[in-house]
Design a protein that fits this description.
- By secondary structure, the protein is an alpha/beta fold.
- It has helices spanning 19-36, 39-42, 155-167, 210-228, 245-254, 288-297, 300-303, 318-342, 379-385, 388-408, and strands at 45-55, 58-65, 72-76, 81-87, 89-91, 107-116, 119-126, 130-140, 143-152, 188-193, 232-235, 259-266, 276-281, 348-356, 368-375.
- The protein is elongated and about 65 Å long.
Length: 427
């Protein structure tokens, strides 16, 4: 998955000037936070800078903080990573100032952000097996430094450390407040802004982050649907927070959604590829690009440090299969309508209708599509995606498509309310 370690184009000029000037500004901001921050801000520790250092073969990631925090670190495998859990920390760090890793022997890259309410996380991707020497904050003056120090080790010792960490797992992902919408009697549309929190998604070469772009679009779309008053629109996340993929699906089902729309804006290796693409669920991808995009999106949980889980097998039940087939037909119908409306926006991919095995589209009883707004790797798409005028136009076209779908399918709940054998619904 893309991470904050992406660097700006060599031609890009940072608005704060040279690296030395930026460090001076960061230091000044740090002093302001320490001495003049209001009490409300003081309650949350702020990270204002970070850097990578090498000392006698050890590699250290250092965060400058406005206050001390407790930290717990553990290794995980498949792939090899170090997970550092913290109380909530507000990371006020320009992604462009994340250090480079050209000389690193252990650290491939790392990312950080809000993981759950009251909890932040740092995920370090490894180039080679590493032992955790320390992960702790050291107070000084009015601030602190969080130091994560890693040393080389061998595969056997790393595997042993992973097994020991599994024996004492961290708290489960249990303090996430459920999403429940007030009953209105209107069909519910659940809009899912992809990524969030520690999972930033894709990043443009100029530093724009997918999680922010899709969140702004989702909010604009929700506002337009709500203003019209025909439907009830809710977001899977209302802030910059991480959500596991299955939790996004669960939030649609828990709210008896009649339609689920996941919003994304990825990157590709080919910068000339542009335009919106609409994906539906299929066990076999429609093409290699669709398979590649689905593979990346399905690694979102892994990017946030969650353990990899195997997909559960489908329940064998005739009514369940009928419901799933009908849901798939509804999803394809909406995809066609959405494509027809987006033609007017003039920003469709040359092959806009695709399918693949996206985890977020796997609700068997909620029609679901994934809307790729465009690609951050395309300068043309990036110009559109960061334009408030384009966002409003695209949100209007999407609203038109949603309205047209419900006119063609005047349902007020799920297409067929049935349950698999034993009364359990698979997630």
């Amino acid at each position: 998955m893309p991470s904050p370690s992406r660097q700006p184009s060599p031609k890009a000029v940072h608005p704060l000037g040279s690296g030395q000037e930026r460090r001076a500004v960061t230091a000044f901001f740090f002093l302001v936070l320490i001495f003049f921050a209001p009490a409300a801000l003081a309650e949350t520790v702020v990270a204002v800078a970070n850097r990578l250092e090498t000392r006698a073969g050890h590699e250290l990631i250092i965060f400058d903080l406005t206050g001390s925090v407790s930290a717990t670190a553990r290794p995980v495998a498949d792939p090899a990573r170090i997970i550092v859990d913290l109380p909530e920390v507000s990371f006020h760090i320009d992604p462009k100032d994340t250090p480079t890793f050209a000389s690193a022997k252990l650290i491939k890259t790392y990312r950080y952000g809000l993981f759950a309410p009251g909890r932040s996380r740092i995920v370090i991707d490894l180039l080679a097996p590493a032992a955790i020497i320390r992960a702790q904050a050291q107070s000084y003056g009015g601030g602190a430094r969080l130091v994560i120090e890693l040393a080389p080790t061998d595969g056997a010792n790393f595997s042993a450390a992973v097994k020991a960490a599994i024996l004492t797992p961290p708290e489960p992902f249990s303090n996430l407040a459920p999403l429940t919408a007030a009953a209105s009697g209107k069909p519910v549309v659940v809009i899912d802004p992809g990524h969030g929190g520690i999972d930033i998604g894709a990043t443009s070469k100029h530093g724009e982050q997918e999680k922010n772009i899709v969140f702004e679009f989702a909010r604009a779309l929700q506002a337009k649907i709500t203003t019209e008053g025909r439907l009830q629109a809710i977001l899977t996340r209302n802030e910059d927070i991480f959500l596991p993929l299955n939790e996004r699906v669960k939030r649609a089902r828990d709210n008896n959604a009649s339609l689920f729309l996941s919003i994304h804006a990825d990157t590709l290796a080919e910068p000339h590829v542009e335009g919106a693409t609409i994906y539906t669920l299929s066990s076999k991808a429609s093409d290699l690009e669709a398979a590649h995009i689905a593979e990346k999106e399905n690694l979102a949980d892994q990017a946030a440090g969650l353990e990899r889980k195997e997909d559960t097998e489908d329940v064998s039940d005739i009514l369940f299969d009928l419901t799933r087939r009908e849901t798939h037909n509804y999803s394809r119908d909406f995809s066609k309508i959405l494509i027809s409306k987006w033609k007017d926006a003039g920003s469709l991919n040359k092959n806009p209708s695709r399918s693949a095995g996206f985890v977020v589209l796997k609700a068997y009883d909620v029609p679901s599509v994934l809307l790729e707004l465009g690609y951050l790797s395309s300068e043309k798409d990036l110009s559109r995606l960061t334009s408030p005028q384009w966002r409003e136009q695209a949100a209007s076209k999407t609203t038109e498509a949603i309205n047209a779908y419900f006119l063609a399918h005047p349902i007020t709940g799920r297409p067929v309310e049935t349950a698999p054998r034993n009364g359990e619904r698979p997630e």
